[in-house]
Amino acid sequence: MKYCRFQLSSRPQYGLVETVAGREEITRLLVNAPEDSNGDMEDVPTKRMEPVPLAEAALWAPVRPSKIICVGRNYREHAAEFGHDVPAEPLIFLKPPSSLLSAGGEIRRPKISERVDHEGELGVVVARTCHKVSPDEDVHPYILGYTCVNDVTARDLQKKDGQWTRAKGFDTFCPVGPVVTDEVDPLAGVQVETRVNGEVRQQGSTRDFIFALDVVIRYISQCMTLLPGDLISTGTPAGVGPLVAGDVVEVSVEGVGVLRNQVVDE
Questions:
Q1: What is the mean pLDDT of residues 212-221?
Q2: pTM for this predicted structure
Q3: Helices and strands in the chain: count of H runs, count of E runs
Q4: Which of 45, 61, 195, 265 makes an SS bond possible with 31, Cβ 3.0 to 4.6 Å?
Q5: Distance (Å, rounded) from C-alpha 104 to C-alpha 33?
């Protein structure tokens, strides 16, 4: 199943996304929020609506997480491009939910930063409460679906602070979307690509993760309880680089879609 969150009659709604005559359309309304389904999306009731082309919808971020957990340096080449060693265990940090931005929204470069970078990533939406997952437990029941994420980063502030909260926590620094889908399998490998003004900046496959998705979920669950709707951003390939006002940045995840946002100065 593939779904989005969009504005209808002045309020956000969840909608089922299907391909009709070669284009993606929002075909039905989801009566209940997907994160309330306990992972059983097939039983989420729907109701009729006049279909809307996904490309013409006023989209909202398709997630409402209590927290956003990100994995740093999960590709060897990305660790190397900044001269860092490959981590011995997953390196995790948090972004605040206030940093969320919808597909089509504007990424605002803060005045106090001189370099703001793109970091295209695969996002994972949590399906059900998850805590201390055992080494032999299947993680798939804890996954509601997958989406595109741009872990926007004020690189100069990251280096200045010595920790990452401020650099990654600005409003608009977590674009997500345009949809969530359970129709891909990152454990088998999906392509992640970032383009700026049409030029490819980043390319990678989830097969190249240092820490596979099941390892990441087990690791995070040992120290914090993951709640339905929480978002995990799984790491970015090599090729991160600066954004300037006027740029259009696109994060593409194979089988999910394209997250497109324009950059403006604060």
A1: 97
A2: 0.96
A3: 4, 20
A4: 45
A5: 22
| Residues 264, 212: Cα–Cα separation, whole Å | 35
Q: Does residue 234 sit in helix, strand or coil?
A: coil
Digit-coded pLDDT (tens) for 175-212: 999 999 999 999 899 999 999 999 999 999 999 999 99
User: What span, in angstroms and rounded, lies between the C-alpha atoms of 237 and 18?
Assistant: 29
Distance CA 166, CA 35 (A): 28
Counting Cα atoms < 13 Å in the Cβ hemisphere of 40 gives 4
* Residue 245 CB neighbours (<10 A): 14
Pair 226, 98: CB distance under 8 Å: no
Three-state DSSP state, 158: helix
> What's 208's DSSP letter?
G
**Which residue type occupies 17?**
V
Q: State yes or no: pLDDT of 82 exceeds 80.
A: no
- How many CA atoms lie within 13 Å of 174's alpha carbon, on the beta-carbon side? 29
- Amino acid letter, residue 170: F
When pLDDT is cut at 50, 70 and 90, the band that residue 120 belongs to is very high
The reported pLDDT for the residue numbered 137 is 96
Give dist(CA 84, CA 66) in Å, integer.
Answer: 30
Bridge partners (DSSP) of residue 258 are 252
| Class of residue 262 by CB neighbours under 10 A (exposed 0-12, middle 13-18, buried 19+) | middle
16: β partners: 3, 28
Check whether the bond before 34 is cis (ω within 30° of 0): no
